[in-house]
Structure formats: C-alpha cells, structure tokens
Amino acid sequence: MELEIDVREKDSRKESAYQFFVNKDYDVSVRQLPVGDFVFDKKIVYEWKTADDMIQSIMDGRVFKQAKRMRQYPYSYVIVVGNVFDEIKARYSDWENPHFARYRKKGQKTFTVNNYIGGLATLYEQDSVIHVENEHQAFTIMYYMSQNILKKDKQAKEVDKPVCKMTDAVSTFLCCIDGISVKTALLIKNHLKLETLEDLLEVTYFDLISIKGVGKVTAKKVMGELK
Predict the structure, then answer these.
(1) Structural domains counted in the chain
(2) 158 C-beta neighbours (distance < 10 Å), count
(3) Contact 202, 177 (CB under 8 A)
(4) Is residue 59 located within the same domain as residue 122?
C-alpha cells in the first residue's frame, strides 16, 4: 500500500510516520500535497490537526475550506490529535490556569465548547472528524482504517492529481497553501499582476507585505512555498 506525506508536515511527525508505516510494509513518499496531509493509495485523505490548530482553524474558517477540497477523494477525514476540550479550558475559560492571562493579553478571541461543537456539526456535513490522544494513536487508526476501507471497497476511484479549483495556475498554487484563502490568493495575484508561475517565482517577501491585507505570516507562508 502507498502512503504520501505532505512535505510541509512537522519534521518529527514526518519521521515518525515514515518509520511507523515503513514497518507496516507501506511504500512511503514525502512530497508537496495540494490537498490534505496524508494520502493512502490516492483514495483516502487525512488532514492532521493538533488540538490548538483545530480550534484556530474553526475560528478562522480554514478547516472548512480544507474539508471541502478533500472531498475530491472517495474517503476524507480530519484527524485531531490532543484534547480539544482541555485546550479550550486552558486558553479561553480557566482563570486559574497560569497560561490563561497570557493568552488573553494577546487578544485571544472568545471560544467555547459550544463553538467547537457547532464547528464539528458543520464539518460532519462534509467529512468525518476523528479525535485521538496522541500521535501513535493517530498513526494506528489511519493504518487500520486504510486497511479496512480499501479491503472492502476495491472499486474506490484514485485521485491522481487533486487540485484547488481555480481558473489559473497562479491562484491555484496560492490557494493550495495552507491558510491562504481564495480571497487572499486573488488579492496577491491581481495586486502584483501575476500572469504565470514564472511571475510568481520573482515575487519577494517585501512585494507581499506591501499589499494591504497581506501580513507577515501570510508572506512567510508564500515565500516558504516558493523556495
């Protein structure tokens, strides 16, 4: 069985996943994936979220866009590693937690358990969400699910070249970057008058931060993909 891991995943996670699945006789490769973080046999896709990243991606709407793009695959899942409810308590509601005041001083937005449940309800309309406690559990459940699903559904269609559905190469490339919305992708393309991928490769960090609505974090993400 084949496993593709997104190259932008955390190095320690890539290494752990590589060792785990190679030991299970999987053919493992690491490359930039336009959709998802882990893809099995081009048929099953997983988006990996830590507890905090899951909260943040519900707050900014990123996970819903990611989930929509993953529906290109016959089977798609968001896998959440860590205790989201403890994270919500620590960051947003527990005055006795020593970290709480620090988070609040940084202007952290309000987020409740009900907000999270509401986000899950929306996600369940598109993809399944799996909660696990740690990385090893995540690898284990992905292993058993990939085995069981592909054994039962031998006719599942492969997705050889998943895409972010945009009308041109520049916008497609930009909106496939994690955290870059379609609106931001079009803003960058139109402001800098980018017609081809060659034009995009000439873009600098300072070009990006000169655009109103494009911050330093976004600029760093784009530059990281252009290296």
Answers:
(1) 2
(2) 9
(3) no
(4) yes
pLDDT per residue of the chain (227 residues) written in tens, 0 to 9: 999 998 878 889 999 999 999 999 999 999 878 788 999 999 999 999 999 899 988 988 888 888 888 888 999 999 999 999 988 887 776 555 555 555 555 555 677 888 899 999 988 876 789 999 999 999 999 999 999 999 999 899 988 777 665 567 787 778 777 778 778 888 999 999 998 888 898 999 999 999 998 999 999 989 987 76
62 with 123, same domain: the answer is yes
Contact 87, 81 (CB under 8 A): no
Same domain assignment for residues 194 and 148: no
Structure tokens at 179: 């955290």
Q: Is residue 31 part of a domain?
A: yes
For residue 198, the enclosing domain spans: 169-226
